Amino acid sequence: MKHNHNHDNARSAGPQLVPVRFEFTHPTATTVCVAGTFNRWQPEAKTLHPIGSGRWWKETALAPGTYEYCLVVDGRWMPDPQARETVPNPFGGRNSVLKVAGLPEASLPVAADKSASKSTNK
Questions:
Q1: Rounded distance between C-alpha atoms, residue 33 and residue 75, angstroms
Q2: What is the pLDDT at residue 13?
Q3: DSSP one-letter code for 16
Q4: Which of 16, 33, 52, 106 has the fewest CB atoms within 10 Å around its CB?
Q5: Helices and strands (DSSP H and E) totals, the chain
Q6: How far apart are CA 78 and CA 82, in angstroms?
Q7: Under 8 Å CB-to-CB from 76, ≥6 apart: which residues?
Q8: What's the start-to-end Cα distance of the chain, in Å?
Q9: Residue 122 neighbours by CB under 8 Å, 6+ apart
Q10: CA torsion 35→65→50→79, rounded to 10°?
Q11: pTM for the complete prediction?
């Protein structure tokens, strides 16, 4: 019975999560977060890590799907300058669009500067 219980948990784990990396560069930023439909628009839930020279990154895992998000840089909400697509938001600004495919190599749409990224969602 214990084995059945464990196997039931494994089967009900939900959709396969795909690694996604957010990257941002700003020479004077002191805090950078990402908020979107994947974390109920709570910026403190996904804080990017500084890696020097004004560069920031955050790796997370998301279920396949389409998400809207913004970067929050020193408290100021802004679309991701590396996003390939944006949509209007109800506050008069723009939200970035993140499309997470089921294949890990197709799930990095925010890294527009990487020529090896594949775009399968057009």
A1: 9
A2: 55
A3: P
A4: 52
A5: 1, 8
A6: 12
A7: none
A8: 47
A9: none
A10: -50
A11: 0.72
Residues in CB range of 8: below 8 A, 6 or more apart: none
Size (the chain), residues: 122
The residue type of 17 is L
pLDDT digits (tens), the chain, 122 positions:
443 444 444 444 567 999 999 999 999 999 999 999 999 999 999 999 999 999 999 999 999 999 999 999 999 999 999 999 999 999 999 999 999 998 544 445 554 433 333 333 43
CATH numbers and ranges of domains, the chain:
14-106 (2.60.40.10)
Question: Tokens 């775009």, residue?
Answer: 119
Residue reference for tokens 């925010």: 110
Whose tokens are 């389409």? That residue is 66
Query: Token pair of 62, please?
Result: 């998301």
Calpha distance 54→77 (Å, rounded):
18
